[in-house]
Specification:
By secondary structure, this protein is mainly α. The chain contains 6 helices and no strands. The chain is elongated, with a radius of gyration of 24 Å.
Length: about 190
């Protein structure tokens, strides 16, 4: 037992010396780039799941207007695909934001912090978009579950539904613009 404690103490001492010896360990810039690399990977997955979610919603409304509207509730159908993609998108947005927050905790990496700040905003706005879509889609689903064809048709062609679509498009344009600004900033800053 004593030998194990001594070995443990030596390992801790060696590890702490690596941190304090000049030139050893990792620099703030190296750490920032690791955070950014992981954050970008999560942000890419977030965007991919957003596309899957969008496609699932389109499929949902296509199936709803087709000859077999009850198929929207089939296991693995558009409703399940939408819910799965939304969950994954939100999870990746949270993970991306966490990685970018790590960059903000570092010193001497101002360019990387600026990029991280932009990408945090992208992740937050994506989360807001997902919340808005969920609320908007929830209202549509409530009307659809009435199974009243006139009510459904009226709602799907009405101002509330159409206004929601326009709001979603506007939010997506804003997110795309922010992501583009972040990408351009990173290219200009060359990191």
């Amino acid at each position: 037992m004593r030998k194990a404690l001594t070995l443990f103490a030596l390992c801790v001492l060696a590890a702490s010396l690596v941190v304090f010896v000049p030139g050893c360990g990792t620099s703030s810039e190296d750490q920032a780039l690791r955070y950014i690399g992981r954050g970008d990977a999560y942000a890419y997955r977030m965007a991919s799941e957003g596309e899957v979610m969008s496609t699932a919603l389109e499929d949902f409304f296509d199936v709803l207007q087709g000859p077999n509207p009850e198929a929207i509730l089939n296991p693995g159908g558009p409703l399940d695909q939408y819910e799965d993609a939304q969950g994954e998108m939100l999870n990746n947005a949270m993970l991306a934001e966490g990685e970018y927050q790590g960059v903000l905790s570092l010193d001497g990496v101002e360019d990387e912090k600026e990029y991280a700040t932009l990408m945090i905003e992208v992740a937050q706005k994506t989360t807001e978009l997902a919340g808005f879509i969920d609320e908007w889609f929830g209202k549509a689903l409530d009307v659809i579950q009435t199974l009243d064809e006139n009510k459904i048709r009226s709602y799907l062609t009405g101002d509330e539904f159409e206004g929601g679509l326009a709001e979603i498009d506007g939010m997506r344009v804003e997110i795309d613009a922010l992501a583009g600004e972040a990408r351009d900033y990173r290219l200009e800053s060359d990191f």
